[in-house]
Structure formats: C-alpha cells, structure tokens
Fold this sequence. Notes:
- With 284 residues, the chain is an alpha+beta fold.
- Helix content is 33%, strand content 18%.
Amino acid sequence: MKLPTGQIYAKAMLNELGIVGLANVREVATQLKLELNEVEVDGFDGALIRAEGVSFGAIAVRRGILEEGRKNFTIAHEIGHYVLPGHEKCDEVCLDTDIGNWSDAGRQLEREADEFAAELLIPTAYARPRFSETTPSLQTISAVATDCRASLSATAWRYCDLVPYACGIIWSKENRIAWSRASEVFGLFIEHGKYLEKGTFARALFEGAEQEYDSPRPVPADLWLDSRHLSEGAEIWEQSIFLRNYRSVLSLLWIKEPISKPDDTEDLLPELDPFGLDSVKRRR
C-alpha cells in the first residue's frame, strides 16, 4: 500500500534529525529553526510565518486551545506546511476546521499536513505494536494518545491505519456522522452525513445518556451499516464516548465475526476493488 505523502516526509525528517522513538514537537521546531509562539487570538488555531530567502520561520499557536494533544498536533501540522514540498506558498492561517479535519479530503495541502503531523506525533514504529497488543478499544487509543501527547482524533485515525482488525472510527456531531476512517480489512461502507440511529450508544450519548462502557458491546449492525449487505441478525461491536469540549461523539466499531452476506461484494470499498472488476462481473 502506497504511503501518503505527509507520512513519507515525516519519516524522512525524523530520520534526518536523528530522532528515535517519540518526538517532542517543540524540540523539533527548534531544530528546524522555527520560533514558536503561543498567542491570544480567536481567529485561528495555527499559523506559519516564513522569512523569505532564509531558512527561518515562526509558528503561532492559539494559547486558548484547551487540550495539550490538540495544541501539539497544531504545531506538528504547521511544521508539515514548513517541510512539505508544494506548501511553500501556504502562508494562510489554519482555522480549527483546517487542522485534524479528517472529513475534508478535498483540501490536499491540509490533509498532507495532517498526515505529516500524525506520523510525527504517533510514529508507525511505536504505534503499530502498541495498538496490536490488545483487542480493539477506545482505552487503547486513549493510552497511546496520552503517551504520544497527541490528540485523540488523530490517534484514532492512526489506529485504523495500523491495526489488523476490522475496525472503523466515527466522529459524530449534532447526531450525524461527520467523518469516519476504516481499517483496510473493514470492507464495508460508512455513510457520511447519516443520522445516528436509535439503539446506538452514540445516539444515546447525544440524548443525554451518562453511561460510557469501558469496552465495545454488540449492537445490531444495520444501525450503522447498509442492511442489504448484512447477514440476518448481524451484530457489530460499538464503543462510544462523548467529548464535551467538542460537543461530539467518538465511536469505535469492530467487526468481531464476519457479518456480510456470502459472496456479497457490492459494498466493497473503492480501494478494495480499484479497477471496478466487480461491476464488470455483474454486467456479464
């Protein structure tokens, strides 16, 4: 599988700087001769200021960002803009909706900077074995986020990149799915913009439920996925937490046992059927 551009350059930069293990983004900024300033602003989360003609620049980060992991991710994101090719003219400020907004695949430069930041803070060599030590749970993701001093959303995204399990991560806001990420073997489509169904733990949290389970629990799979491609009585394992600072819910879905109808390939993700062979087969 081809690695994303941001991830490739983050790996290369860490190697060039001689950093082994977990990186401190503030120290990385210093090594790159980037001055780091926390500023009292409301209009943006991060900004990169370049000095034309010299190898020097500055990063401004909004002091009011509540979570240290989110602040570190913002710094790493701006370092990405500084390092990545094609970002030389990227001198705009980055709003909170630009950084770690995994729903917006259309903004290539911001997505590359996010991928760079995710690899810088949550390196593959460290995270893959940590993620695979236990069965899927948000506790595992949270523990790695804490160790890496990274945001929970970025760590959850990386989780799906690196685990061998059939898992999906869903970020919901205002009772709707805002973005999702599925592992390579998940194989089923998650509809963005879909309203959360009653019966999901995520919906219950939006409606005021206070109980958050410490491990995934089974729910009918058709509450999350298209029932046309599911076996009768199929279940998916869900764990959800309410993130009060963001008024959002983060959900982990885990396919513990196969739930697709036998030989049902219509719901294959595009990357699992890149040449459209399944549609050709059906036309015959």
